[in-house]
Design a protein that fits this description.
Elements: E1 2-8, E2 17-23, H1 27-38, H2 40-46, E3 55-59, H3 60-63, H4 69-82, H5 86-106, H6 109-127, H7 136-163, H8 167-187, H9 194-212, H10 216-220, H11 224-239
Antiparallel strand pairs: 1-2, 1-3
Helix pairs in contact: 4-5, 4-7, 5-6, 6-7, 7-8, 7-11, 8-9, 8-11, 9-11
Length: about 250
């Protein structure tokens, strides 16, 4: 059972508005559309004229495969910026902005504002990429915030998937939560204790089990979503970052 997202926006000025519904669309078709969608930012950047907003339909299960796109793009942006390849940095920033815009459109109400502000922050950096005010430190801070917010976003999606009996998606989003928590720590140039590292490994393991188990209730008895929420709060306290969500576990 898959879900479909209807995404509207031009990536340059607007946050995506996304609705989810069941579909039988082929996954590979959605994959191609998702990749094409992320390239629209470059087109929008070259065209200042007002245009009709594009409408796309994306398969949620396929789109979720791109959960680690910011991790790969952020590293590329930082490396390109240090090399002074500002065009490459700008292109990868545009893709990251597109991704975060889509996820903001799927976020719960409490995360919409901070995710939107993070998108705007990255847009400002992209628009001033050649300015002396843009530093490696500014990039690192923006990327750390993005990962921190995405961790909370995916935790809420895991909870929603659990409550609607979409167990494979619950596991996938749980895995994504652990991934972005780790990246938030790394981009914050922080360290976590061994117990927290072990908790993240356990969350990832349980997420994988939910994706493959024929008996998800056995996995749920270990309370994986609650464990992820507890770990998120602990890391937030360690990093002095705000927790924007209040999951009903």
């Amino acid at each position: 059972m898959l879900a479909q997202s209807t995404l509207k926006g031009d990536y340059r000025n607007d946050i995506m508005h996304t609705s989810i519904r069941k579909t039988k669309s082929p996954g590979w078709t959605a994959c191609v559309v998702a990749l094409a969608t992320l390239s629209l930012g470059a087109i929008a950047q070259a065209n200042d004229a007002a245009a009709e907003r594009p409408l796309f339909e994306l398969d949620e299960a396929t789109w979720a495969m791109f959960y680690d796109l910011p991790s790969r793009r952020f590293r590329s942006i930082r490396d390109a910026f240090i090399r002074k390849d500002l065009d490459a940095a700008s292109r990868d920033l545009q893709t990251s902005i597109g991704f975060l815009s889509i996820e903001a459109g799927r976020a719960v109400e409490g995360l919409l504002l901070p995710l939107s502000e993070n998108v705007e922050e990255l847009q400002r950096i992209q628009g001033n990429i050649a300015d002396v005010s843009v530093t490696v430190g500014a990039l690192d801070s923006a990327f750390a915030r993005a990962h921190w917010l995405l961790a909370q976003h995916y935790l809420m999606l895991s909870l929603q998937s659990r409550d609607t009996n979409r167990h494979k998606m619950a596991g996938h989003y749980l895995w994504a939560t652990a991934h972005h928590l780790e990246r938030a720590v790394l981009w914050s140039d922080a360290r976590i204790d061994r117990a927290t590292v072990s908790s993240l490994e356990s969350i990832r393991k349980l997420g994988q089990e939910l994706q493959t188990s024929s008996n998800p209730q056995r996995v749920y008895r270990q309370k994986p979503v609650a464990a992820a929420a507890k770990t998120l709060v602990k890391i937030g306290e360690h990093l002095n970052r705000k927790v924007w969500i209040q999951p009903q576990l």
